[in-house]
């Protein structure tokens, strides 16, 4: 996790492949929630549009599963991924 | 003991450690999952398993901790492989030892069921000419929720 | 495969056979019971296990058959030891392989629970200076009936 | 199993020890049931008296668990034993 004013965003599995992105950084705007961040990213269009509800997206903040309402802090690590299928 | 690794594992070695966990142990339950040729695609030749390093281990630690609070668990060992795995290869091992048989079975099955729905692993099925991310099965969600 | 024998067994060998039972196998559940130091008597140093030769094997065959009708069972292996067994020795092994995890767990646990209440084995606990036939526990009867 | 007019009776575990008997033979009287045989044996008195209900006794005929009402035939193998405690 970084100590500057950014949030690290990670993608896994199908999302990582379809967005062609494993990691990116975004600015930690005051009041930003995980769900809002997801909505903002969907606004990029193209494959990113699927983040806006077309497929279920799980959210983890600092490696703990969380709800979209979760407020983000500078330095947080947010991960978006499809429902898990291990075991 | 929790391990996420590419290399194969030996259930016999895990069993030996579980068996040596003390004179109060009366029951050892183990589960091993293998790559199977009948997933969402036909003619699967293997799997690719991705995970979220760091979070995976934390989630499994949490599941083992929860199992230890609900049942008598002397020791639990969980191994999950990642990367490319061919047909019939071992994917996952869960072993639990307990004083009692019911506790060993319940804790082992609980950890395995919960792992499938809450640990950040993703499977991609590979056939001769295509690959395809596996979708989560409603049955797995239901099995895990039945423990709640 | 059902064996009633005095000599020890190697769960690793049973696991290898279960694993080699075909490409449809995705799940292997095993259970091993050990002699434990907290039975009806204190300071147990071992057990003596008696059985009814012939009937024992028939009863276990029947349980495996019943399990195979209720769940997907590719192969089941049951071993039960008889004679004198010291503390921490292995008593019983049940291993089941199946296409699916839920079936492997259920069949393994069903066979083990039913074996405890219907296969003709009797345990005598031995301490330094006494011995004592173990009484059937109501909890075991209840666990087995819960499958009916 | 014998082919003459007898029934083989076996005892296991605590019963075998307390009766000091692993096997005995009895005559296959017409109409004899497993429960009646148990009652007859209890009539021997001493430790045998426990067969008449003081302790639960399980019954197998020809290696299959059965009820006391089961009628016995010449050549049958009847076993009496305490509730099982293996596994």
Automatic annotation (TrEMBL), chains A, D:
<dbReference type="GO" id="GO:1990133">
    <property type="term" value="C:molybdopterin adenylyltransferase complex"/>
</dbReference>
<dbReference type="GO" id="GO:0000166">
    <property type="term" value="F:nucleotide binding"/>
</dbReference>
<dbReference type="InterPro" id="IPR003749">
    <property type="entry name" value="ThiS/MoaD-like"/>
</dbReference>
<dbReference type="InterPro" id="IPR016155">
    <property type="entry name" value="Mopterin_synth/thiamin_S_b"/>
</dbReference>
<protein>
    <recommendedName>
        <fullName>Molybdopterin synthase sulfur carrier subunit</fullName>
    </recommendedName>
</protein>
<dbReference type="InterPro" id="IPR012675">
    <property type="entry name" value="Beta-grasp_dom_sf"/>
</dbReference>
<dbReference type="Pfam" id="PF02597">
    <property type="entry name" value="ThiS"/>
</dbReference>
<keyword id="KW-0547">Nucleotide-binding</keyword>
<dbReference type="InterPro" id="IPR044672">
    <property type="entry name" value="MOCS2A"/>
</dbReference>
<comment type="similarity">
    <text>Belongs to the MoaD family.</text>
</comment>
<dbReference type="GO" id="GO:0006777">
    <property type="term" value="P:Mo-molybdopterin cofactor biosynthetic process"/>
</dbReference>
UniProtKB/TrEMBL annotation, chains B, C:
<comment type="similarity">
    <text>Belongs to the MoaE family.</text>
</comment>
<comment type="subunit">
    <text>Heterotetramer of 2 MoaD subunits and 2 MoaE subunits. Also stable as homodimer. The enzyme changes between these two forms during catalysis.</text>
</comment>
<dbReference type="InterPro" id="IPR036563">
    <property type="entry name" value="MoaE_sf"/>
</dbReference>
<dbReference type="Pfam" id="PF02391">
    <property type="entry name" value="MoaE"/>
</dbReference>
<protein>
    <recommendedName>
        <fullName>Molybdopterin synthase catalytic subunit</fullName>
        <ecNumber>2.8.1.12</ecNumber>
    </recommendedName>
</protein>
<dbReference type="GO" id="GO:0030366">
    <property type="term" value="F:molybdopterin synthase activity"/>
</dbReference>
<keyword id="KW-0501">Molybdenum cofactor biosynthesis</keyword>
<comment type="pathway">
    <text>Cofactor biosynthesis; molybdopterin biosynthesis.</text>
</comment>
<dbReference type="GO" id="GO:0006777">
    <property type="term" value="P:Mo-molybdopterin cofactor biosynthetic process"/>
</dbReference>
<dbReference type="InterPro" id="IPR003448">
    <property type="entry name" value="Mopterin_biosynth_MoaE"/>
</dbReference>
